[in-house]
Each structure stands twice: as C-alpha cells, then as structure tokens.
Amino acid sequence: MSKTPLSRLFALAWRESRTARRRLLLYMSSISLGVAALVAIDSFAENVTRSVHEQSRALLGGDVSVSSNEPFSKTTTAFFDSLTRTGNAIAQSVTFSSMALVPRSGGTRLVQVRAVGVGYPFYGNIVSEPASAWPGIQRGRFAVVDPSLLVSLNAVVGDTIALGTGRFVITGTLKSVPGDLGISAAIGPRVYVPDRYLAETGLLVFGSRAQREALVRLSPKLSQQDFVKHFRDRLRNDRVRMRTVAENEYNLTQAIDQLRDFLGVVGLVALLLGGIGVASGVHAFVMRKIDTVAVLRCLGATSWQVLLIYVMQAAAMGLIGAAAGAVLGVALQFALPGVLSELLPVDVSVSLAPTAVALGLLIGVWVALVFSMRPLVALRRVSPLQALRREADSDALRNTLRDPLRIAVTIAIVLSVVLLGTSRADRLSRGLGFSAAIALSVAVLWVCAAALSTLAKRSVRPRWPFVVRQGIASLYRPGNQTRAVVLALGFGVFLMSTLHQVQSNLLRALDVRLEQARANVVFFDIQDAQAQEVDSITRAQGHEIVQRAPIVPMRLAAINGKQVTEMAADTARGRRRPGWALRREYRSTYRDRQTSSDKIVAGHWFSERRGNDTLPQISVEQELARELRLTLGDTVTWNVQGVRVPTVVTSFREVNWARFEPNFFIVFEPRALEHAPKQWVYLAYVPQGSAAVASLQRAVVSRLPTVSSLDLTLIQRTVTNVLEKVTTAIRFLALISLTLGVPVLFSAVSATRRERLREGVLLKTLGATRRQIGRIMLAEYALLGVLGSLVGVLLSIGAAWALMHWIFRSPFVPSIAPAAIVAGAMTAVAIAIGLLTGREVFAQTPMAALREA
Amino acid sequence: MLIARDLTKSYHSGEHELTVLRDVSFTIPQGAFVAIVGPSGSGKTTLLGLLAGLDTPSRGAVILDGADLTRLDEDARARVRGEKVGFVFQTFQLIPTLTAQENVQVPLELRGDPRAAERAAELLRRVGLGDRTHHFPTQLSGGEQQRVAIARAFVNAPRILFADEPTGNLDSDTGARIVELLESINRESGSTIVLVTHDAGLAARAQRVIRLSDGRVVSDIETERAA
Prior knowledge:
The structure holds two protein chains of two kinds.
Chain A: H1 6-16, H2 20-28, H3 32-54, H4 56-60, E1 64-68, H5 74-85, E2 89-102, E3 107-116, E4 127-129, E5 142-145, H6 147-153, E6 160-163, E7 166-176, H7 184-187, E8 190-194, H8 198-201, E9 210-217, H9 224-236, E10 241-244, H10 245-298, H11 303-340, H12 354-376, H13 393-396, H14 404-424, H15 428-459, H16 466-476, H17 482-510, E11 521-527, H18 531-540, E12 544-559, E13 562-563, H19 564-569, H20 579-583, E14 585-590, E15 598-603, E16 617-621, H21 622-627, E17 635-640, E18 643-655, E19 666-668, H22 670-673, E20 679-685, H23 690-703, E21 708-711, H24 712-750, H25 753-765, H26 770-808, H27 816-843, H28 846-852
Parallel strand pairs in A: 3-8, 5-7, 14-19, 16-18
Antiparallel strand pairs in A: 1-9, 1-10, 2-3, 2-6, 2-9, 4-7, 5-8, 6-7, 11-20, 11-21, 12-13, 12-14, 12-17, 12-20, 15-18, 16-19, 17-18
Helix pairs in contact in A: 1-11, 2-10, 2-11, 3-10, 3-11, 3-12, 10-12, 10-14, 10-17, 10-24, 11-12, 12-14, 14-15, 15-16, 15-17, 15-26, 16-26, 17-24, 17-26, 17-27, 24-27, 25-27, 26-27
Chain B: E1 2-13, E2 16-28, E3 33-37, H1 44-51, E4 59-64, E5 67-68, H2 74-84, E6 85-88, H3 100-111, H4 116-126, H5 142-154, E7 160-164, H6 172-189, E8 192-197, H7 200-204, E9 208-213, E10 216-222
Parallel strand pairs in B: 3-8, 3-9, 6-7, 7-8
Antiparallel strand pairs in B: 1-2, 1-4, 4-5, 9-10
C-alpha cells in the first residue's frame, strides 16, 4: 500500500462522487426499510421488556399469587392464616362470570365479576373515575365497573346493579387496571365488588366456575425463592398454582422475545432484499466509473487505492441510508405502543433504545457494504489501457469470475446471511433452515434466468415482428440483464408473495365458521330445578328451545384400572400422559342421538344395550383420546361427585370447536348420568333480532338471576370486529412490503442502462421510430417482468407451504388472488421503470450519444 | 531514459494469433521530443501502452529511467507512473465530477503530497487558465480541457510525458496552440516527450520521428529541428 494518508484519499473520493451521490443514495435506500423494521422491532421489544420489569410487581399485584379453580382447601386456608401471623399480608379475590342487571333501565349483560378483599391489590394502582370510588369500595355494597358496561346497560353512576340476588350501587368507573389487556373489556366487562357480600349474590353454586386468587405481600424476612421452595410442594396436591413476580416477569419477557424474533425475521428478509438492490445498483455504478478508474490508474493510482476510493463512497452512502432507516425505525417505535396499546398488559414507556439503534445501524451498514463489495472488487481489474482504447465495458471487466477476492466476498455474503438468520432464530435449526431457503430460492432464480435466456434464443422465429424479436434478443445477447433483473424481481416477488400466502392462510384458519346458526341465544349455569322455568319463560315469549345439553362435572379416576395418581407419576416415554388431561375437571354431557357437530372417526355410536351388566359407553374427542393414549374398548373410570362410574370407550369423535354450540370432550350414553347432579345449557332461537333477544334475556334474569345468557350474534359481531382489525393490520404490512420492491428493481434495471441508451440511440439513427423503440423496450421488460414474477410466485407457494407445515402446523391452500396481485404489481413496476429508462433514449440526440461512444 | 528492447505484442483472438508489434527497439534520451507516427492499425497506440507501463509485452522489455517495467507488478508500475510519467489523451480524459483544479491535483493527491492544491493552481496559471480553476470540464471548451490535461500531466514534474493524439479532437488552430504549449513547458521542465500521432504536420514539430508500419519500426529519423 502507498503512503497516502487515508483522509486525503477520502477527500478525493468525496469530491469524485459529486454527481453519483444521489444515485448511490437511492440504491442504498434499498436497505433503509429493512433497517427501520429491525430498529423499530428491537426498540419496541426493549421498551416493553423494560416496562414489564419496572411494573412487574404491579402486574401481579403481590409478591406471590396463589390461585385455584376451586375453593381453597382447609390446608391452604390454614396456610394463609399462618402467613398472616408471621407478618405477611394476604388479599383475596374471586373472579367469575355472571349476568348483571340494572333494574332501572332493564339492561342486562354477561359480566366478569371480581369480588376483592381488603388490601387488593398490594401493588399497582387501580384508578377509578371519580378517584374516590375505588379506595372506598370496601365501605359498603359498592361496585366499580368498566365504563363500556354503563353504555351497554344504559346505566349511570349511582344506579343499582343486581348480581344474582345481591344489589350494589355503582360508585364509579374504571380508568386503568394494571395488568389487564384493554381489549378484554370488549369481551367481558369487569365489575369490582367487595368480597364480603359475595355470599349475598347466591352466585357461586354447584357447577359454577370461578377463579380464586390470593395475593401475598411477603414480609421483609421472607424472600420469594424461600417462599416458593418451602411451600410449593405443600400446596401442589391441593390443585393450587403459584406464581412469583420473577416468574411472571420471565414469562412475559419470554413471550416478547419470541415475538421479537419472529417479527425480526420479516425485517431481516427486507434487509436482504435491500442487499440485492444495493448489489445491482452498485454494479450499475461501477460500470459508469470504468473510464474514471482507468484514468486514475494512468495517473498513478494502485488498484487498492482505486478500490478504497469507491468503497469509501459506498460506505458513506450506506451509512446515510442505514441512518435514515434507523431514524425511521425510531419514529416507528414511538408510534407502535399507541397502535398496540390495547393488546399489551403494560403501559409502555417509550424511550430511545440505543443498543437497538446501534445494532440496526451496524447490521445495515454491514449488509450495504458486503453487498456493495461484490461488484466493487471488479474495479481492481480495470486496466489503465482502457483510457487509451475504447473497448466494450464488459471486456474491461474480464476475468472477474476467477478473482479470489470476489469469491471471498461472495463467501462473506453467504456467511453474513447465515449469521443474521441464526441470530434472530430461537433455534439454530430454524436459522439454518431460513438461510437454506434463501439460498435455494436464489439458486432457483439464477437457473430460471439462465434457462430463460436459452429459451429465448431457441424460441425466436423469423416470422415474428421485428420489435418482438429485438425485445427477445435483449434477453440472451452478451451483456444482457436477464439474470440481474430476474433475480431482483423474482426474489422480491418471492418474499412478498410468501408473506401474502401465509397471511391469507392464517386468516382462513382464524375464520371462525360463523354459519347460520340454528340458535342465537344460549342460557347456561341453569340448575336442574330451574330448567323447567327457563323453558316456560322462553315459550311464553313465543320462542323455541332448540337444544338442551346436560352438563355433569366429573374427574378422571382411572384408565384400565390404573389410578390417576399412578399415571401422573409415570413419566416413561411411551406411557406419559399430560398432567392437565389427568387432573382437569371434565364437564361432560350425555345424549342418545348424534348431533350434527359429532363426526365419528373411529368406532361406532352408542349401540342398543343388551343388559344392565354391561358398562356404559362413552365417545371421546379424538385429540384428547390421543393425549390420554386411549384405544377403543378401554375402560375409563370417572369420579362423578364422589361416585365412581366405570365406562367403556366405544368411539372417537372429531369436534369442530369453532362452531358456536356446546361441544364436549366426552359424551356419555344417557343411562350412566341421568341421575347425576347436573347443570343445563339451553340454546334458543329468537327470530326477531337483538331487541327480542334482549327482552328474553331480561325476562329470564329477573326471575332466575343466577342463570347466565349470551347473545350469540353479539359475540359473533365482536369476534368478527377483532379479527377484521387483525386482518387489516396484516394486509397493511403486506402492502408496505410492496414498496420495498421498487428501489431494488430500479437498481437492477439501472445496471445496464448505458448499453440500453447506446443501443436505442443507434437504432434511432438507423431509422427506428419512437414507437418501435418503445415497443422493443416493452417487449423486453414485459417478458422479464412476467417471467421473473412467475418464478417468484411459484417459489413463494413452496415457501409458504413449508412455513404453514413446519411452523404454524396448519393446512395450506395456495391463494391465487394475492399471488396474482403481487405478480401483476411487480410486472407493472418493471415495465414502468423500463419505459422510464426508455424515455432517456428518446430524449438524447443521436449525435450526443455517438460522440460519447 | 526510455529504452525499448525487442518489444513484441501478440493477442489471441479466437484461434488466430494477432501480432501487433514485432521486435520494436529504440532508445530515447532525457529531454528529447519524439513523435511516433504511422497509419491506423500500425500499432502506435499499443506501443504507447507498453512504453508507459500500462500493459506488458509478450516479449521484450521496457526500461524507464532505469527501471525495467516488465518486471514490475501492476501496482508497482502504477507507482512509477505517479512519480515519473505524465499523460495527455486524445479525449482529454478529465474526471467529469472534479473541477479543473481538482483534476490537476489528482496525481499529487494520490501520492499524499500536501502541496497538491498549491501546485495545481500554479500550473493552471501557467497554461493560462488561472481564472477557470473552479470550472467543471463540461463548462470548458475542447482546447481549454486539453490545457487542463496538460497542467495535470506536468503537475508531478514527470520525467517523461506521453501524449496520444493530443490534437485529435481539436480544430487545427487550437491544436497548434496546444502543441506550442506542450513544447514550451517541455523546454522549461526538461522532461522527455513521446507523442503518438497520425498527423504528419504535428510529427514534423518533433526532433525525432519514429515511423511504424505493420508493427515494425520502418524508420527512425532525427529531423532538422534537432539541430
């Protein structure tokens, strides 16, 4: 290397780049969006994680949370007493669903009741409107409710609200509750009441489902770990869950990390696409600089000096491009919490995340540099003779294929892709899979481009019009841009189309089959004694009960003679049954006829009984059967409220859980459970619409306040609304991704601009009209666009299938419409850019071009 | 100071071997003004390339100021060029994104010479363009561009200057003035000039004319001017 100080060389590089700067910047902007995405996602994740950490205690409400789906056993209650005696504090709460009625307005709605004890919550502020309502809640029969509830019940602060047989006065509305998702208020509006009056409501009866929680504020003498160590096992057999603040925080941040990694892949893909844009653009840039480089070599510049000059230019522009992306990412990061606030359990405090910005910047500059290097290293081979002669540019860059430095740079690119992919994946196998997929798609595109050139050569027929032939000839003649454009275009289409395919498949999976249901109102928590009355009320209003399903709560006792405790302890590989399946409460039903939602996949429906000595038959849902390792003919013994009921499995069912109907894991034949303690679920059909439904609900709730009901069409509408929001968000993202394609394509097309110009002008001189030149360009770009897009779309279908199969584990159906849209859009963009370039040909006079040549 | 010894250059074009130069030999002393002439296709430009170390011969050697160029690698030759050689091209070959002064500075900047700007300005004044230092090549006429090129060629005080058809893109009046300028600076600096041209009139101004035909030296004559 020479003794030239770097700064002087940089000054020369900067000056020389005067006119090229804007173009170079445009090429570098290909990576800006990728950098923006990465910076935004990382910053957001950092902000959320930090907020979770800051608010971790408020999120849980205590140092430890002990919860259960059943009333706390005597052991547990005694344990709580011992804790309070040793300086710790306990605050309890009970959460359950119930119907709420405002007698004044007649409004009724299913709500989430939270009966809280004194001191709840220990950490985190529940803010009410007016502010005095919440602190004063324990002083009487007061209720603090979600503001949306007042609207749906047509009530105001001061009204009385009836919960079961209890009456409470609404003293205020909830403004903020730490740890709650804003969106949950839409589904189950909350009503906070003091737990002292819970018994008055008469709501917690047989079969009710409620979650009980005890928050513990530890005395300074007891640490979280000690608490967990000593008491976890003691309470485990009581079916009690325990969560500490640390565990809660860990779970939340884990989830955030996974989301960040997943989204980060999108940003990464955008960045890689940008890299291709950079490579194409810099290639075009290099071609324009060949003459200058030759002169510099004549004037005494070594090949390394020359390389350094242009690497400096690329690096400077890359830095600016990445910086622009980082700024955009930071701006996005401020907007994200606002957009996602309803879906987050914390208030996210947004501040600059320097590590995220620095990382994004670094990655962006690196990608820009390493992709630029590949075309740049060719400059070292430019011979100074070029200044004397006027060889074709492609000759000047001869021998670049065997250049060891170029090969080294290509390897560096590959390694970078692999490294970036694995750094964002949670498993090495995923990262490698990602890199392999990218490599495969590039290889396929390359091969297709080469095939296209050969095909073009072979298929041209003399009979075809000149413009078409000329256009096709552009595809295979020396120095053609087929490979570059097909690669850039195809890869861009591939990425975008994959996104669209996955999106539409995911949406299809989410698409709750909201068929024209036979029923639009469901009544549940109906006690046996109340069933008759629900019937008569409904008939009195002129409506039909279309389905009656009995519900018998029970637990698993044994399978084929092996007790549950024995099976839970058996963790051997081929015999393991998951704890949740063994210990949960099963709410089963019985019926003698199959319903439309029952689809027998193995065995047969209940057959006629031959005698009372044979075991009652049950039909099991197929996924549960798989978890419990059941086979047809197995004996399953149930514990139904203390009575052991042995049964035999005679069929497996496939259940469509997405239907708005009562669906069950286990269906018994009637004789086994007819006399067991049960609840009922009734489905009714009310033809006249929601006003009639509300009136029916009111009628039932006023007479039977413990019976809950749901307007199914209302639920349907809410769910559809939420899904629509999610759909729109995904679609918006996909649309944005289309904009990525433009700078990349532009760069790719620019690569052979000079030849295009020279040729076009030559044609003009030889007598070609504007129209003819235009049509030649159109033929070439249309072909490139269509074929590149086609290959990209086909590749994307393969990739989307792989994603749906391995990652999302959902069935895949190729969607034609989004694929066609993406392909069409990109082809249009290709043609547009091509025609724009063609405009330059029209603008230049032949003399100017010839003289330049 | 410039010795060409049995220079031969052949190209492989497909299956043919095309020999452009055959056994060209001569010696040029320091301070001489030599013209290399010949019809197009005679190999003049190829010879120029070899003499300046822009290319390597298939056989033979070029010794410039004591250094055997044929034994040096690409970068070493570049360094020799930077220190000892100046170029003037037919198409001026100014870097379009640099101003006149910045163009002239380039050879010195590549060597890390801190006085580059000063020296460049000086030379531009010498060629009569002191008031156009900040103009870009597109803003200068052909003759002015060539003058900038000449300034650039002399900025590093070269021992030898190579000129390839320096008046080829200029009208005859301007061309004549350019040659006068070249000659006068040459006298002042004492450098050698090797001029390649197919213009007989231009060649006549040199002290010595080496004529090429079909890749061989057919005559090597000192003109009356040598006296």
